[in-house]
Amino acid sequence: MTTRRTRLKKGLKKLVPVMTVTFTAAPFAVWVQPAHAFFPPFINDSGPPRVLPQPPSPPPFEPPTPPPPPFNPPPQPPDVSPPVCPPPPPCGVPEPATVVSGLIGLAAAAGYGLRRNGEKK
């Protein structure tokens, strides 16, 4: 009985990841709509392609270059004085994503600990 149970546990350990991937990917493959926004329909109403002769090219035209504008030196920057009051202290509240990431990490660590304790018995 013990060997049968051990074989069943080993088989389930191999089967669980396969089933997880299958049940996660199957809905996306079955119910997801195609991405028409990325690939708009190609409409060709002009008939078969035809070659149009090139019109004769006009001679190149080079417009006269205007003289450069007169040089004006840039204005002097204003004097910057130090602020009168000190800046506010940094905010001690973490972002929500940091809190959620921490909770996910704690849950993963707790699950690992529970799994290790279950194996020792």
Automatic annotation (TrEMBL):
Pro residues: compositionally biased ranges: 50-91
Keyword terms, alphabetized: Membrane, Signal, Transmembrane, Transmembrane helix
Endpoints of the signal sequence: 1-37
Superkingdom, natural source: Bacteria
Ice-binding protein C-terminal domain residues: 93-116
Disordered, as annotated region: 43-91
Positions of transmembrane segments: 96-114
Official protein name in the record: PEP-CTERM sorting domain-containing protein
Naturally occurring in which organism (per UniProt): Gemmata obscuriglobus
